[in-house]
Amino acid sequence: MWPWGHAAFGYLLYSFGSRLFGSRPSGYPTIVLLVATQLPDLVDKPLSWVFELFPQGYSVGHSVFVAVPLGIAVLALAVWRHRIEYGIAFIVGYWSHLVGDIVLGLVGGNPYTFARVLWPVVTLPPYSSDLSALARIHEYISAFLYLLSTEGATGPLMIALMIYFGPFLFAILVWLVDGAPGITAFRRLFSSPD
């Protein structure tokens, strides 16, 4: 799943979950959520692609053996600090990333669907090619663009675009309906004091 897909999936779960409890997402927890949706890739891709510590970009950050205790620890800290919404946002963001990767693997018929989240019990085989981090990113983007061009050549480009960007566009719409939470908080984080 691409970063925007993880962000969309996590935000939609968070927004709809918030509505079930009679509220809407708020500023700083939404930022925590969005960072948490990217956290497994921000940990594992550099460990594999840059530092070559793991044979694939699915290891520590994607492991349920790390994600579950870490999520519970963050939630406990948030409860202790009287900021439960931050802990919930972290858990929804982080765990939705893992669920999204599993669902995408099931849909795509990936033989390592569940193995992706079982490190260190299961270690995935190494990539078929030994590439630098930049070359690996280029390979991912090229494969994505090739998929879109192939789908376009055979006709269902709109279906491919809706699969890859539809949930993201829907999440943006829901985010706007929610009042665009996080914008003001983000500005406060990066504004210089007068």
UniProtKB/TrEMBL annotation:
Coiled coil: none annotated. It comes from the Archaea. One of its GO terms (molecular function) is hydrolase activity. Keywords: Hydrolase, Membrane, Transmembrane, Transmembrane helix. InterPro entries: YdjM-like. The chain crosses the membrane at residues 60-80, 87-108, 157-177. This is Metal-dependent hydrolase. It comes from Halocatena marina. The lineage of its organism: Archaea, Methanobacteriati, Methanobacteriota, Stenosarchaea group, Halobacteria.
